[in-house]
Amino acid sequence: MAIYLVQGLLSIVTLIKRRDDFIRYTADITMLYFLSYLCAGSFDLSLSLYAVFLIAGIGKLQKISLGGIITGILICLYAGVGIMYQDAYMTLATVVTRYTYIIIYICMIFSEKIKRTKKVSADDYRYMVRSGLLTEMLIVIVVWMKDGIGARVVTNHQPIGGGIVLGISLVVGICYRQHLFRAGEMLLYDGISMILIILSGTRGYMIIFAMIMAVTMIVYFMDIPDHGNRMLQRIGVIFFVAAIVILWICIFDHGKTFELILRLDESLGYRENENLYVKELMKRIPWYRKWFGWGFGRSAAGTKEALTAAGLASWNRRYMFGKLLQRTIFHNYWYTILFKQGISGLIVMILFYARMVKRICQDIKDRWIRYFLLMMAVGTVILLTFRITATCSILEMLLVAYFIRQMEEDNGEGEKENAE
């Protein structure tokens, strides 16, 4: 409890000190969350504090769209039913870990404070990147001191390494595109980030990082910020390096290191039992359960449909039978939504991401920044199929919404200047 008290007190101090500097405030709050998570070995309460202080930093909202209102009402409705008539703790845990990123995104998109935020300098973004990378490196050192050098970066069997890097990779790419970071600086930050992502051992993280890095590298090798002045030179270097890597993997290493790093020799484990359980359950439950789910605070245990589904799903791991009956949150985020809110919940999520993609495509004029944000949005959808991130996608979605707002303001100022 002392750890959470320290996190809360330091977060209050940060809120007061950084009230007019949202990027540095977000960096500090994120750093405090991860250090608290590392020390406590559990993220339930530390993540709740993180979310509360982020919302406090976002501040008052302006007029919210109809879609945002409907999404918020549905979350509040399910949460209210869960707290009053189901398991209150399970409901709150579900809201914090599975739905807060949606709330944060909506708050960021409609925040008055973000709309009138001061022009952010390169040093502000640099502070976020450096503090995040230093925090990640500290986490690796602490975990390796405890579990041995080379151990997967986890705490209490939960992945903690690489959680900040996903958001940082987006910041680095966009800052390089906007001439806020030099090429060498970008390569240094992304090189360290890549090492940290690999050490995290989480394949979902690697996917989203690779998607953003792909755009960053295209921008770099085509030398887009400087109109292609060094394009041929950089493309030549990448072909040379790629040839060496391919030779090493195919001839000398036979792909063993590649397979080990990406954990390609490992199966999904009991996740396949979870996935099969939800599929079999959905085949058997009444129509109203299929459409509206079981709610935020209830398991399916005690129903004949659940008993049958658990029996079929645990065919190769009998010990999973009892666990599946009590399971309400699954590694696959979309199966969690299907279980808790049914088909209607999936429809709401599809509309949520469709609206996000539409806003990115319509409001972001720079196509490369548009690609960065699309990669983060699409990458998050793919990532959530494997597992949710260490920040439960809060940091990633916060930054997507933040850059959408920043680009909107920049476009508005540019149009105003042209009109004058």
Helical run tally: 19
Alpha-carbon distance between the two ends:
57 Å
List how many beta strands DSSP finds: 2
Query: Rounded to an integer, what's the Rg over CA atoms?
Result: 22 Å
Main sheet: strand order: 1-2
- Helix- and strand-based class? mainly alpha
Oligomer: single chain
Residue share in helices? Answer: over 70%
Query: Which sheet architecture does the biggest sheet show?
Result: 2 strands, antiparallel
On the 0 to 100 scale, the average pLDDT is 86
**Stretches with pLDDT under 50, minimum 5 residues:** 414-420
Shape: globular
Q: What sequence of helices (H) and strands (E) makes up the elements? A: HHHHHHHEEHHHHHHHHHHHH
How much strand content do the residues show? under 5%
Protein name: Lipid A core-O-antigen ligase and related enzymes
Keywords: Membrane, Transmembrane, Transmembrane helix
Transmembrane segments: 34-57, 64-83, 89-107, 127-145, 157-176, 235-255, 333-353, 373-404
The gist of it:
The protein is mainly α and 420 residues long. Strands 1-2 form a two-stranded antiparallel ribbon.
Description:
With 420 residues, the chain is mostly helical. The chain is built from 19 helices and two strands. Strands 1-2 form a two-stranded antiparallel ribbon. A hairpin with a 2-residue loop joins strand 1 and strand 2 (158-159). Helix 2 packs parallel to helix 7 (122-147), helix 13 runs antiparallel to helix 15 (304-313) and helix 18 runs antiparallel to helix 19 (394-419). Residues 414-420 have low confidence and may be disordered. The chain crosses the membrane at residues 34-57, 64-83, 89-107, 127-145, 157-176, 235-255, 333-353, 373-404. It comes from Dorea longicatena. This is Lipid A core-O-antigen ligase and related enzymes. Keywords: Membrane, Transmembrane, Transmembrane helix.
